[in-house]
């Protein structure tokens, strides 16, 4: 029986129920894909009485994302929904988990979730902000390779967004250039955005049940050993490896460990050493030391927190005379203030107290390199001189008034 159009399902012309998915759903998904169309997800269709779909579609592994508009607010949105061959209750619940995980994260580098809904028990959708920009993958292919300072400035906001996710005990597990959009705001500034928390997990809600022989979940080239071998010890340090792998690829044009299949990747992870970028392309030794630590095969030897990695990268940029990231945010304000004891410090001060200024940080925190605010003392002298000049002028006028006889 053909499906009712999606708008009618959600507006009460259907009881919202559907039969169980065909027995061949997961056995022969490719054949089902060719015979099932996106009824209800075509341009012009209305979802929930307010989201009208438009042309423009982005293909994913299990999902598709189509552009749309909120008809009441005239707000551009993006609608993510399951491909026909993957519609079942388990994956519909997975979409809900993704929506909840992403909606809990408030950071400029993470895509905003606006709404979520069910068409039926085995068919759901997510409404997200619509982004204007291009995939990091397309940008890297066009600019390959990126200069070190530019690469770190471009990817450092992603480090901040994932640090906020880790602070809420959410692990992405599939960081890669295809899941990053280089969006532009109304002022034309680039703001990298992380997408697709579809296989993210909350560490306190669930553990991966990956015993021997379990399939690895992730993307070849960006999986550390514990993820590639399905060891069940996947935690936030998996994202640290994947992030450093993205930086490595941006700088060199290749991932740190390569393999066409999972078996080849596993063999390379065991047998091969990651080529040093300091030797192969001549990047700064300090920068390579930061990345090399994030790419170590033993999780306990890597950076133990994403915000620690971000702080080191920010210090490296400052040592090169760079003071902001690609979105224009101050590196000192975002990463290096003394009060920044958690990844949330860039959003609010502890106990709502006012954070110290950049000048306070420079004065009180020793750095491994000189960081001088030019003309700071001169400006202070000029302000003090102006104040003294105004006071002397006032006194002179008062004295003249006393000497001048009244008429």
Structural description of this entry:
With 407 residues, the protein is α+β, with helices and mostly antiparallel strands. The protein folds into two domains: 124 residues, Phosphorylase Kinase, domain 1; 230 residues, Transferase(Phosphotransferase) domain 1 (Transferase(Phosphotransferase), domain 1, Orthogonal Bundle). The chain is built from 14 helices and eleven strands. The strands form three sheets. A six-stranded antiparallel β-sheet has the order 1-2-3-4-6-5. A three-stranded antiparallel β-sheet has the order 7-9-10. A two-stranded antiparallel ribbon has the order 8-11. Helix 5 packs antiparallel against helix 7, helix 5 runs antiparallel to helix 11 and helix 10 packs antiparallel against helix 11.
In short:
This protein is an alpha+beta fold and 407 residues long. The chain is built from 14 helices and eleven strands. A hairpin with a 3-residue loop joins strand 1 and strand 2 (51-59).
Q: Major beta sheet, specifics? A: 6 strands, antiparallel
Strand line-up across the major sheet: 1-2-3-4-6-5
* Radius of gyration computed on alpha carbons: 27 Å
Low-confidence runs: 1-37, 202-214, 343-377
List the topology elements:
Elements lengths: L5 H5 L18 H7 L10 E2 L3 E9 L3 E8 L4 E8 L6 H15 L9 E8 L2 E7 L3 E3 H8 L4 H20 L2 E2 L8 E5 L5 E5 L6 E2 L22 H4 L7 H17 L9 H10 L5 H4 L4 H10 L11 H14 L11 H6 L21 H7 L11 H28 L4
Antiparallel strand pairs: 1-2, 2-3, 3-4, 4-6, 5-6, 7-9, 8-11, 9-10
Helix pairs in contact: 5-7, 5-11, 10-11
């Amino acid at each position: 029986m053909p499906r009712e159009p999606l708008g009618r399902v959600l507006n009460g012309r259907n009881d919202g129920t559907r039969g169980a998915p065909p027995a061949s759903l997961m056995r022969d998904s490719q054949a089902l894909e060719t015979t099932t169309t996106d009824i209800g997800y075509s341009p012009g269709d209305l979802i929930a009485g307010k989201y009208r779909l438009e042309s423009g579609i982005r293909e994913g592994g299990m999902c598709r994302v189509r552009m749309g508009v909120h008809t009441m607010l005239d707000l551009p949105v993006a609608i993510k929904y399951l491909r026909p061959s993957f519609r079942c209750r388990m994956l519909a619940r997975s979409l809900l988990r993704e929506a909840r995980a992403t909606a809990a994260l408030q950071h400029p580098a993470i895509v905003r979730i606006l709404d979520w809904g069910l068409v039926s028990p085995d068919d759901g959708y997510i409404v997200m902000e619509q982004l204007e920009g291009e995939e990091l993958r397309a940008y890297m292919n066009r600019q390959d390779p990126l200069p070190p300072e530019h690469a770190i400035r471009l990817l450092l906001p992603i480090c901040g967004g994932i640090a906020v996710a880790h602070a809420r005990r959410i692990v992405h597990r599939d960081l890669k250039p295809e899941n990053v959009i280089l969006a532009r705001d109304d002022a034309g500034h680039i703001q990298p955005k992380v997408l697709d928390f579809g296989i993210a997990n909350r560490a306190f809600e669930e553990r991966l049940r990956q015993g021997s022989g379990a399939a690895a979940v992730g993307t070849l080239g960006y999986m550390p050993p514990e993820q590639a071998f399905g060891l069940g010890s996947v935690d936030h340090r998996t994202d640290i490896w994947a992030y450093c792998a993205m930086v490595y690829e941006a700088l060199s044009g290749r991932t740190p460990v390569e393999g066409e299949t999972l078996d080849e990747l596993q063999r390379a992870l065991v047998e091969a050493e990651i080529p040093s970028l300091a030797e192969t392309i001549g990047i700064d030794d300090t920068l390579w030391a930061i990345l090399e630590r994030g790419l170590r095969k033993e999780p306990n030897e890597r950076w133990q927190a994403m915000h620690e990695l971000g702080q080191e990268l920010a210090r490296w940029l400052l040592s090169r005379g760079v003071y902001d990231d690609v979105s224009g945010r101050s590196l000192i304000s975002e990463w290096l203030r003394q009060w920044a004891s958690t990844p949330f410090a860039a959003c609010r001060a502890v106990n709502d107290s006012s954070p110290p200024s950049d000048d306070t940080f420079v004065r009180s925190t020793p750095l491994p390199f000189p960081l001088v605010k030019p003309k700071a003392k001169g400006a202070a002298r000029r302000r003090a001189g102006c104040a003294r000049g105004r006071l002397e002028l006032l006194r002179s006028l008062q004295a003249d008034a006393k000497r001048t006889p009244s008429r």
